[in-house]
Write a structure and sequence with these properties.
about 290 residues; alpha/beta; six-stranded mixed sheet; two-stranded antiparallel ribbon
């Protein structure tokens, strides 16, 4: 029998334990995304995302803003994940798709396209035809935060969504965009059954950390899961966030990002050559 809340019922979308309760009960990423977009567990984020959706930016006054949590985007069996703080007030919060409609997304998807992991170099709307090949893009916090700064409590409340997403996805490699994403993802990986080294690895651009499953987690993996990661290892790669602050100053350049994504694709077993679509076994997703 499902556990119930303190009032004898399942947590409502406004309850702080809504993510943890529902995420753990999702049997697939489609179900997870459907539960996630109903979440109202963080009052400050709900108020901000809805205020922005109502007032809009002048350039987008004709848009009907999404104004809800933004789910991950990409194939449900992708061997490569990209994780970084993403929903922007007038980007994902407007379009309803991760890293879509802002400069950071343009920089990221251009690089993904260059190495053959995306069907086009730009992401303008949820119905623009963009497809990802063998890669899923997601975030540790799914609502646009004021000043792009979630609080620790908001990050922790949202963690259950990412834990379940990573567990269901079972990727071979993860590119982590920025120190916030790195710090948010490490406890997620521990919850998902991966052994973290001690001391915990620090974020740096170009860092590569190899994780192995905890013995307790190995015992519950299915044969299908084992086939997805035959070596029982997960590669974690650090990358500067493609924020305008980093890209305008040259801290992160397009060649740097392309090189790191190609490295991650190699770890994930995605064979990409000269911008051709990789061999993913038919794994793709369209908005």
């Amino acid at each position: 029998m499902d556990e119930v809340g303190v009032n004898g019922s399942h947590p409502s979308a406004r309850d702080r334990d809504f993510p943890a309760f529902h995420a753990a009960r999702c049997g697939g990423l489609g179900e997870l995304d459907g539960q996630l977009i109903e979440c109202r567990a963080c009052p400050r984020l709900v108020a901000w995302r809805e205020e922005v959706a109502a007032t809009k930016r002048a350039a987008f006054r004709d848009w009907e803003y999404w104004g809800r949590p933004v789910p991950g985007f990409g194939p449900h069996d992708a061997p490569l994940a990209v994780v970084g703080l993403a929903p922007a007030a007038h980007g994902g919060n407007r379009t309803g798709r991760m890293f879509t409609g802002d400069a950071s997304g343009d920089f990221l998807f251009s690089a993904l396209h260059a190495v053959g992991l995306a069907s086009r170099p730009t992401a303008t709307a949820a119905d623009d035809g963009l497809e990802l090949y063998g890669v899923r893009v997601t975030s540790p916090v799914h609502c646009a935060p004021p000043a792009n700064k979630p609080t620790p409590a908001e990050r922790d409340t949202c963690r259950a969504w990412l834990t379940t997403e990573i567990t269901l996805l079972n990727p071979r490699a993860i590119v982590v965009l920025g120190a916030f994403g790195w710090q948010a993802l490490l406890p997620v990986l521990a919850d998902a059954g991966w052994q973290l080294p001690r001391p915990r690895p620090r974020f740096t651009h170009g860092a590569v950390v190899t994780l192995r499953r905890a013995e307790s987690a190995k015992a519950v993996r299915s044969e299908a899961d084992d086939a997805r990661a035959t070596d029982g290892e997960l590669r974690l790669l650090g990358c500067y966030h493609p924020s305008q602050r980093n890209t305008f100053t040259g801290r992160l350049t397009a060649p740097m990002l392309r090189k790191l994504l190609q490295q991650a694709a190699d770890y994930a077993g995605l064979r990409t050559h000269d911008g051709n679509v990789p061999d993913t076994g038919g794994s793709s997703a369209q908005a």
